[in-house]
Amino acid sequence: MAILKIARMGHPVLRAVAEPVADPTAPAVRALVADMLQTAEDANGTGLAAPQVHVSRRLVIFMVGSERLTNRPLDQPQGWSVLINPAIEPVGTEVELGWEGCLSVPGLRGAVPRWTKIRYRGIGIEGEPIDRTVEGFHARVVQHECDHLDGILYPQRMTDLRLLHFNEEALRFPVELPGPENVDE
Ligand code: NI
Known about the structure:
Blueprint: H1 27-42, E1 47-49, E2 59-64, E3 78-90, E4 94-100, E5 108-115, E6 117-123, E7 129-135, H2 136-149, E8 164-166, H3 167-172, E9 181-182
The structure holds nickel (II) ion.
């Protein structure tokens, strides 16, 4: 196991569209996941995508900690998940602004609109199919991590760049975000 170097905004690996993982149960994939878990925990992250450690493959890890939970029923605390070759679809039309940070954009946080509720599918570390419908923070972290696989960082999803703040200033000057909105398709 090893702590890996995390790519920061500006590195081209973060802008690339990642390739699917050909064999999710390959030993190399297991080794990468072990290193990513160690890297994310060392950096105090709640999620990490393979491109962030310079591996342009469609694999993410994430956890749902109790401190960020919304009070939505499908938003429950959960330990680390491994999600390989994921696909996401929105459930409903509700979009909500929420604060996000990223290990590739250190020191900052921004208010990002995301689908409140999503269904996501993919493959787990044992090769098992994953099919979950979630909402709130769980839905947010999955959308954030999966965006990395398409070369998208959260500032690109922001609709109001006035809400891109340094963490220290955000703690000094908290901003209340508006509630959920429905988008017409
Ligand atoms: Ni990120």
